[in-house]
Automatic annotation (TrEMBL):
<feature type="domain" description="Glycosyl hydrolase family 32 N-terminal">
    <location>
        <begin position="19"/>
        <end position="225"/>
    </location>
</feature>
<dbReference type="InterPro" id="IPR001362">
    <property type="entry name" value="Glyco_hydro_32"/>
</dbReference>
<dbReference type="InterPro" id="IPR023296">
    <property type="entry name" value="Glyco_hydro_beta-prop_sf"/>
</dbReference>
<comment type="similarity">
    <text>Belongs to the glycosyl hydrolase 32 family.</text>
</comment>
<keyword id="KW-0378">Hydrolase</keyword>
<protein>
    <recommendedName>
        <fullName>beta-fructofuranosidase</fullName>
        <ecNumber>3.2.1.26</ecNumber>
    </recommendedName>
</protein>
<dbReference type="Pfam" id="PF00251">
    <property type="entry name" value="Glyco_hydro_32N"/>
</dbReference>
<dbReference type="InterPro" id="IPR051214">
    <property type="entry name" value="GH32_Enzymes"/>
</dbReference>
<keyword id="KW-0326">Glycosidase</keyword>
<dbReference type="InterPro" id="IPR013148">
    <property type="entry name" value="Glyco_hydro_32_N"/>
</dbReference>
Length: 321
């Protein structure tokens, strides 16, 4: 498990350079006292590991910019990919406050030659825009959702795709969460495209921290959402991280088919394939303790497998066998 005694640790993502695994994570000082205050104090930390179990913290990756800037409030969740020329790209969410006090989220990036020293590109490259995505014009939420970029190479070699946590401007309030989508030829310039899912009466108000992978030959989408932000039909599910089966890493994704792979005690499930044996592993951060309070810290790896057409943690599969 990765944790910091003086800070809360929550959302995170991985990179694998072929020799070491890299963990990028959001953290904020426990001196804030209130864990809910951590979001507006978030920086992006960095740790490395040889085995995905023991981690060594190294210098931070990114902090917020001086105002005025699209990331002058906080730097939030993202992903890391490597360009064919060897340059690493860290895509991240930049948070700022609008004049009406609402949180606005945009996507920016930084580059590195070694995964340790990062240089921010000037300004954001993507933001929410109609007609496909809900913006500040809506009063239904406290934020303009456009965050958690997950970037992947096109399966057919046609540039790059980005999946984004976003909302549609119509549909049931707690069912408007959609898989936002953008495309790029070079990782630097981006074209906003229609979402890869639709709002649903059995859906979620936000599909947080998206990830797509092909696990043992089967494409899957992962996202996280708690009961309180989902449609009433999901009440009592106590789900934290959800899985959606798919025909392709580019969807379209039927969010109605989502099922939980963790309960609400574990949030932001991420998959990574272990290099030495090809085993797929699930991580998550510890969301709540027995008393319901926030905990934080990234879990140890949990092996997953397909069982009965569903992706499950192996210990869960063994218990049901």
């Amino acid at each position: 498990m990765f944790d910091l005694p003086g800070s809360w640790v929550w959302d995170y993502w991985f990179a694998d350079d072929g020799e070491k695994y890299h963990l990028f994570f959001l953290y904020a000082s426990r001196a804030l006292k209130d864990p809910d205050a951590r979001h507006y104090r978030a920086s992006i930390g960095h740790a490395v590991s040889d085995d995905l179990v023991e981690w060594t913290q190294v210098a931070d990756a990114l902090v917020r910019s001086d105002a005025p800037a699209f990331d002058d409030l906080a730097t939030w969740t993202g992903s890391v990919v490597r360009h064919p020329d060897g340059t690493w790209f860290l895509f991240y969410t930049g948070a700022s406050l609008a004049a009406n006090g609402k949180n606005v989220q945009r996507v920016g990036y930084a580059t590195s030659s070694d995964l340790h020293t990062w240089t921010k590109a000037p300004g954001p490259v993507l933001e929410a825009r109609g007609p496909w995505y809900e913006t500040l014009d809506s009063d239904e939420w406290q934020d303009e959702a456009f965050r958690d970029p997950w970037v992947l190479a096109d399966p057919d070699g046609d540039g790059w795709h980005m999946l984004v946590t976003a909302r549609a401007p119509q549909g049931p309030i707690r069912g408007r969460g959609v898989v936002g989508h953008a495309w790029s030829p070079d990782l630097r310039s981006w074209e906003l495209r229609p979402p890869l899912s639709v709002p649903s009466a059995d859906g979620f108000g936000q599909l947080e921290v998206l990830q797509v992978e092909v696990v043992d030959g089967r494409p899957v989408l992962l996202f996280s959402c708690l009961d309180e932000h989902a449609m009433p039909s999901r009440a009592g599910s106590r789900g934290g991280t959800w899985v959606v089966p798919a025909d392709s890493v580019l969807g379209p994704f039927d969010i109605d088919e989502a099922y939980p792979v963790t309960d609400e005690g574990l949030y932001v499930g991420r998959l990574i394939q272990r290099r030495d044996d090809g085993q797929w592993l699930l991580f998550a951060f510890r969301n709540t303790g027995d008393d319901g309070s926030f905990v934080g810290g990234v879990s140890d790896p949990m092996p997953v497998e397909w069982r009965g057409g569903r992706l499950v943690r192996q210990e869960v599969a063994a218990a049901r066998a």
